[in-house]
Amino acid sequence: MIICHCTQISDHDIHAAINWMRDADPKTIITPGKIYHALGKAADCGGCMPLFLDTMRSNDNMTVPAGLQNLRRRTTQESTYEGRPQSHRLSQQGTAS
User: What are phi and psi of 61, to 5 degrees?
Assistant: First the structure.
């Protein structure tokens, strides 16, 4: 099935690229950009991206490598203030200079 009409990429092409990348480097993060690059093509209009992503996600080799899982930090109130306590922020009202 053709996934991207602009560049003539099929679901078979996407799966083959994912399998090739995973075989070449089991720890790689696979992105749509890397798939386009592996196929020697570039995204054009982006209209295919939802179907492109669904096709990627359906591949069994799309799991995130174990060493890279759970790297996302929890959002805390401290991170709202750029890592500094609120008392170190400039006044929101400021002074007119």
Answer: -85, 10
